[in-house]
Design goal:
This protein has about 120 residues and is mainly beta. It starts with a strand and ends with a strand.
Length: about 120
């Protein structure tokens, strides 16, 4: 059974930091490209980072570049998202997902972890 389980969300003040984790099982994590996606209330999904299976390639949209860092530990089957200098507009439900080759289809998703940035 495939599982992606996110954790690490919470309520944080603006300017603070959080690290999200995504524990994967049921598929070959080390050869899978992975991504973090967020969705704020009333808005569509926004892809906030991605990393290939070996960890040699990453990408970020302009909204988070320089503040968010994706990483992975293939020995632990775990994906991470370090989020620094958080802003209220980062408030969203954060999901991890597996990307199929081409980054157009995402076949496995976690249940999400809530991040709320508020003073």
């Amino acid at each position: 059974e495939v599982q992606l389980v996110e954790s690490g969300g919470g309520i944080i003040q603006p300017g603070g930091s959080l690290r999200l984790s995504c524990a994967a099982s049921g598929f070959t994590f080390s050869s899978s490209s992975m991504t973090w996606v967020r969705q704020a209330p009333g808005k569509g999904p926004e892809w906030v980072s991605g990393m290939n299976g070996g960890g040699s390639s990453t990408w970020y949209p302009g909204s988070v570049v320089g503040r968010f860092t994706i990483s992975r530990d293939n020995a632990k089957n775990t994906l991470y998202l370090q989020m620094n200098s958080l802003k209220p507009e980062d408030t969203a439900l954060y999901y991890c997902a597996r990307a199929l080759p081409g980054w157009a289809i995402y076949d496995y998703w976690g249940q999400g972890t809530q991040v709320t940035v508020s003073s």
